[in-house]
Amino acid sequence: MPEHGRLWPELAAEMEAMRAGDLDWRHGRHGAYVWYASDELEHVLREAFGMFLVENGLGIRVFPSLARMEAEVLEAVADLLGGPGAPGIFTSGGTESIFLAVAAMREWARAERPGLRRPAVVAPHSAHPALDKAAHYLGLEVRRVPVGPGFRADPAAISAAVDADTIGLYASAPSYALGMVDPIAELGQLAAARGLWLHVDACVGGILGPFVRELGYPVPPFGFDVEGVTSVSADLHKSGFAAKPASTVLFRTETHREFARFTFSDWPGGTYSSLTFTGTRPGGAIAAAWAAFQFLGRKGYRDLAAASMRARAAIESGLRTIDGVRIHGEPQLFAFAWAAEGVSMGRVAAALAREGWVAARTTSPDGIHVMATPIHERFADDYVAAAARAVAAARAAAGQAPERPAAYN
């Protein structure tokens, strides 16, 4: 901290210089981290966030404007997820949304089945690590079972892993790494038959997925229109194209949501009661999410869905022209992963990174992950050309150790 303050123009210039080496997301060099739709929407998000920069979402009762915007966003998400009126919580991101769903699952199980030794959640191997993070903090066991041949959850394997200590199941729509929508309907039937909580992690696809379905793509139902689904997480700052940090978790009933609430009164400040983990929440994130929904409307999201699917198709078709390249499975949305036979994908990722492309790795199976968004449509040919060069470079370096280990951070 300097002894004396500095003027904003000087600070702005230095900050702009700092990010000269940052990810070039405006030119589609990102395979993760950023969801960008247009300069127009970015302007709306900046303005809306700035209007409520100081307001605190913890004190929602003294900011009725935030209360209204939050309620309207949650209502819109509930409609998208096939559960009009389903109660929800506005959170800071997918990790908090999943944490709250698992916390509610645990408290529900304690109420329904007291005396459980070590409650367990059964999930496919493809489940996001936020599940294990939540379980670590909450004292639960996670049992990961192998996925089926199409890299989707295997209902038979999951059913076989359920025992007397199992309290819930976990599924993805889609899985982050490979873009697969698990067979939610079958898992819902299993959950309903065995009296289990089923959480659907739709953090990636929850907002845009229903619009992809509206466009005629074969996206199976994954929300509350599926029997047995108890909670669904859907990120606003991913396929909702809102400002960070913003996500949602919705529940089938008010009773289910109340299991996520923490209440405490044995201190000098009176009763503390909160549905979120974080406490203080940026009012700007709530305002920006509301503004995004209002600015884009259903047509705007359909257009983003169409552009995202066109981008995926363009990248996929180009990749398939590279010798030995295949797409892993048959993903239904805009996320997918690819690999080239006979080469180290770690070396391919390293070669892409040297050209400025973020190449997120997958390990099961080995590959490179792509999260197609509208901006990728115009840069699809550039990505494919870079991928072809990277595969060629990796083949030339065959036999050498990979340069780039898989990491999600």
UniProtKB/TrEMBL annotation:
Necessary cofactors: pyridoxal 5'-phosphate
Database matches in Pfam families: Pyridoxal_deC
UniProt modified residues of type N6-(pyridoxal phosphate)lysine: K238
GO terms, molecular function: aromatic-L-amino-acid decarboxylase activity; pyridoxal phosphate binding
One biological process term in Gene Ontology: carboxylic acid metabolic process
Origin: domain of life: Bacteria
Keyword tags: Lyase, Pyridoxal phosphate
Coiled coil segments of this chain: none
Similarity comment: Belongs to the group II decarboxylase family. Sphingosine-1-phosphate lyase subfamily.
PANTHER family, alphabetized: PTHR42735, SPHINGOSINE-1-PHOSPHATE LYASE 1
Listed name of the protein: Glutamate/tyrosine decarboxylase-like PLP-dependent enzyme
Organism this protein belongs to: Tepidiforma thermophila (strain KCTC 52669 / CGMCC 1.13589 / G233)
